[in-house]
Amino acid sequence: MLDKRFVIPLQEINREAFASSIPDFNHRSEIMKTDMGYKCTITNIVRLTEQEKLFQLRIIDNRERDIFKFKPGQFLMLELPGYGEVPISISSSNSNHEFIELCIRKAGHVTSALFTVDEGSHVAIRGPFGSSFPMDEMAGHNVLLIAGGLGVAPLRAPLFWINEHRDRFLNVHLLYGVKEPSQLLFTYQFDEWELINHITLHAIVEHPTGEWQGKSGIITELFDDISIDPENTYAVVCGPPVMFKCVCNYLDKLGIPMNRMFVSLERRMHCGMGKCCRCMVGSTFTCVDGPVFNYWSVMNLKEAI
Ligand SMILES: Cc1cc2nc3c(=O)[nH]c(=O)nc-3n(C[C@H](O)[C@H](O)[C@H](O)COP(=O)(O)OP(=O)(O)OC[C@H]3O[C@@H](n4cnc5c(N)ncnc54)[C@H](O)[C@@H]3O)c2cc1C
Ligand code: FES
């Protein structure tokens, strides 16, 4: 007979009500009460490069699939049963309710194990977590999407959003830099972005190898190719901290205000929901208050970069 004194009462969570509204992350108590988990099937895996694969997931339960919503810039905790959980940015369109896409680099324990699974395998996700890019605020302006390496993965969600609301934006440029041509991700979408969605793509590689005919150098050299109206431009920068620091300094010199530059900060995370303190920078939780911050806030966060 179970001694009731030792049974922790289960909190009644209205999963449907919670998930049907995007959680308000300014109310941390709300998110801490809740731990939404969804079982998914991996429905497709595309090898993009030697180090990165694109995983397409489908939430198994029909009702849960309908209620799962996210905003561009948010991330998930992805669990491979038996191996652990990792934070991964959502890399698909938030209007696609059938599938979720995650672009994953093989980095260590969990991500290497993910590289061995086949289509049809099951994983679990929690989330979505974190802050998002201010898509509505950026509408009506020019937008610079600036990606270094794997940074193009979190930028793909705002790219889809812009493509789906293209008439709400002025000029949109994607500036994308990698070390070698073989590391370029989503090359199969370049034509679509340029020709159909009228997003001007500028790619640059640090070490041109093979048949690379494009520009070589570092990402800031791409600014020579475009004219920027600082009064009317937003910038979203994703990549390693050393890159976004250098890019944001450059944009600052061009006159773009720091509160119109957005970056996504990556820290090691465990819970993703403000519980474990693993991701803290000073008193800021990068999982709840971020990962998307404007550059002004990042500059004021000690040890953020
Ligand atoms: C908000 C957020 C979004 C992310 N989005 C993506 C994404 O879209 N695609 C993707 O491939 N990766 C993404 N990452 C990084 C990813 O979470 C790590 O690569 C992953 O957790 C590594 O786990 P692992 O068990 O494979 O490696 P581990 O064995 O834990 O570590 C292997 C190596 O990776 C480094 N590492 C671990 N965690 C991180 C981290 N959070 N940031 C940087 N380096 C780390 C370790 O220092 C170590 O050198 C994201 C991280 C965060 C915080
Ligand atoms: S990851 Fe646990 S508090 Fe941020």
Bound ligand species: flavin-adenine dinucleotide, FE2/S2 (inorganic) cluster
Instruction: State the end-to-end distance.
Output: 55 Å
Question: What's the structural domain tally?
Answer: 2
Largest sheet: 7 strands, mixed
CATH class of the largest domain: Alpha Beta
Taken as a percent bin, the fraction of beta residues is 25-35%
Order of helices and strands: HHEEHEEEHEHEHEHEEEHEEEEH
In CATH, the homologous superfamily of the largest domain goes by the name: Nucleotide-binding domain of ferredoxin-NADP reductase (FNR) module
CATH topology of the largest domain: Rossmann fold
CATH architecture of the largest domain: 3-Layer(aba) Sandwich
Q: State the helicity in percent bands.
A: 10-25%
Number of helices: 9
How would you name the oligomeric state of the polypeptide chains in this document?
Answer: single chain
Short description:
This protein is of the alpha/beta class and 305 residues long. 22% of the residues lie in helices and 28% in strands.
List the helices and strands and how they pair.
Elements: H1 15-20, H2 28-33, E1 37-47, E2 52-59, H3 62-67, E3 75-80, E4 84-89, E5 100-105, H4 109-114, E6 122-129, H5 135-138, E7 142-148, H6 152-164, E8 172-178, H7 190-196, E9 199-205, E10 215-216, E11 233-238, H8 241-254, E12 261-264, E13 280-281, E14 284-285, E15 292-294, H9 295-299
Parallel strand pairs: 7-8, 7-11, 8-9, 9-10, 11-12
Antiparallel strand pairs: 1-2, 1-6, 2-5, 3-4, 3-6, 12-15, 13-14
The structure holds flavin-adenine dinucleotide and FE2/S2 (inorganic) cluster.
Flavin-adenine dinucleotide is lined by residues 75, 86-89, 103-105, 107-111, 150, 153-154, 266-269, 291.
